[in-house]
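Notes from the 1:1 (GR / supervisor)

We went over the backlog. Supervisor wanted to see one worked example end to end before approving the batch request, so GR pasted a single chain during the call. The sequence is below; no edits were made to it. Supervisor asked that the structure be written out right there so they could see what the output format looks like.
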Amino acid sequence: MTELVDALLIAPYRLADNAVAGFYIGTTVLALACLIVGKASLDLAWLINRRHYDKEEAEMIRMHNLSVAAIEAGDKVAYKAANKEANEAFGKSFFAGAALFSVSIWPLPFALAWLSGRFEGVDIPVAGNYAVRYNAVFLAIYIVSRFILAKYWSRVPYFGRIERLRKEAAARRTKPRSWTELGRPGV
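Structure output shown during the call:
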């Protein structure tokens, strides 16, 4: 099994006759594979747990809105209680989001371990007479690709469907009140 995975992963590195070009092509393909597998994992985890995430987000907004209403009513005790609960709900929502992000990057350690086995100690030329190690090149390509693909995931059929579901869930949620609304009539 290990030989099959290695053969599959090394194939893009052999597409170019030039070793440096082959390294960059192969590393780009590996980074894109990590992004696709990570994004699919994140979306699957979100689908499985979306009711929980929606509940956490709704509770955070509800408690925030209660704290804004309490301040508006001049009830300091109610504000402190609601704000404490809002902060607790924010923490839960924040760490749920952090957990989802972690799901999206699970392929990275495996890719880096494979790269280490293949390219440990090899200097990879970059601009000019400079050279770096495999991990710097891989992580740079991965991060740049992640930023670029963030704009385009919604156009890919599976990922676009999940993105639409997320937007629909967000649209159904009560909107948080802004602190700048305090004291404004009709808001």
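Supervisor's comment: Residues 118 and 132 are 15 Å apart (CA to CA).
Batch request approved.
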